[in-house]
Amino acid sequence: MSASRAVVVDAPGAHRLVSGPPPEPGPGEVLVRVAAAGICMSDREVYDGHRDPGYVRYPVVPGHEWAGTIEAVGAEVDSSLVGRSTVAEGFRFCGTCERCRNGETSLCVAGYAETGFTCPGAFADHLVVPARLLHLLADGADLRAAALLEPAAVVAAAVRAARPEPGERIAVVGAGTLGLLAAQLLAATSPAELTVIDPRGERAAQALEFGATEARTPAESAAERGRYDLVVETAGAPGTAADSCLLARRGGQVVLTGMFTPGAAGIDPVHLSLSQLTVRSIFGAPSAAWAFAVRAFTAGILDPGPLITHEFPLERYADAVALVGGGDPKTGKVLLRP
Q1: Would the CA dihedral through 116, 146, 176, 190 be positive or negative?
Q2: What is the pLDDT of residue 337?
Q3: What is the DSSP letter of 301?
Q4: How far is it, in rounded angstroms, from Cα 21 to Cα 306?
Q5: Verdict on whether the full-model pTM lies above 0.85
Q6: What is the CATH number of the domain that holds 264?
Q7: Domain range spanning residue 83?
């Protein structure tokens, strides 16, 4: 087998492209050739050194959003998996703690471990993952689009938590990758209204192509406070959690999926209490949400491909990561293509 390359971030702001023999899968593991890997703000935070130290281990090969083809299997793994297209869950959950046994694998209490943050990720020609985390794709699946199934699984977790009913008024706060994927999944639930809110008018307008019925800026949506049965927050901006609660009707639901940083505005407990809101938060995705997202992708309900605007080889990792969070509204999803 030819040499395998990987991007290694040794410390914030310091990376190198290394080359060597492909990693070997151990018992219960598979070796995957990466077809495409997405870059998100979490990857930018790893490179900039802004990720919480408890959720990254340097040096690290980043890359938690990916799709690829199984090239080899370790002991105790079915050899018929070789050649199959796949994605895999990022959380390396234990599978035996109470939370895992209850199906809440993203709440595993055995300690945080995740592909691309504490374990080698997919900014590489190959990666090794536990076979138990695989979600196989249909033959001929678009692996370029499938690289976005990790954020799609997060959105699926939010939709499954909210359980929207047909005819509801729904708002999605944020028109980034999570917001536009949320629009696709929520449009499939037949809402009466599906409004996507983002200060970037161009991004909000793009949501109309993904199933939204309206696109608005925060200023335009200020008059709609107290209107929505369900609000799905995807932006993680300093004020969007509090603003999302104001958009919900009394007795409504709010699901927070954005990754907030210290100093974000708090939710008013008086408003929360008097409005009798149900507020849920999502961090990662349990196994059931992954299965949901893959089914939706296979059925054509979920089509992440149009979100992709830029693709780079591994050698241009620095250029690729600089685009993410750069503020250009024309920058959508950025991929590395080994």
Answers
A1: negative
A2: 97
A3: S
A4: 35
A5: yes
A6: 3.40.50.720
A7: 4-148+304-336
